[in-house]
Amino acid sequence: MASAHSLAAVSVLAAASKQGTLASSSSSTTLHSFSSLPLKPRELSLFPNLSRVALKVAAKAQSEVSPVGETFSNLKHLLLPVIDRNPYLSEGTRQAAATTTSLANKYGADITVVVIDEEKREASSEHETQVSNIRWHLSQGGFEEFKLLERLGEGKKATAIIGEVADELRMELVVMSMDAIHSKFIDANLLAEFIPCPVLLLPL
């Protein structure tokens, strides 16, 4: 699924210190572009002690692992999946949003948010509230613009949709909370099979 230059396996980075050290879809799509007032970005201490990927999901064998510094210094396209149905966003999703904006600001990258739900959502105030909260949390990180994709009611697993979007838009990093795995929205065993780029998993 992934292009020739993509990693043969998904690298899952696990967080390693309490200062914020971070360890490591296609049918109809609705595209939005938002602008919001710039606010001061949240300060995070990123990867000060990591020199290599801590953990690799090896669905496909690969002998070399890129240094963390090299992997992140060239980031230009970040993907933030929103899988939970909480209109105010779960703690894990809020954490992932804050980390994504911090990385985007640090490396000059753009952000794409993909809202995923296997079930079709009718237009509702709860959905509008969720979109509004996504916008707010990204603006809290000082990020003024982002793209929003909605993949709703397709009956596909979230992991497959994330992989499709990451492949089509040539994403370079997917940022998610471990909450998505603990809540069984994401099957960790399928990450390497479907997602063609590194995945940053944040602890709860």
UniProtKB/TrEMBL annotation:
Instruction: Write the protein's name.
Output: UspA domain-containing protein
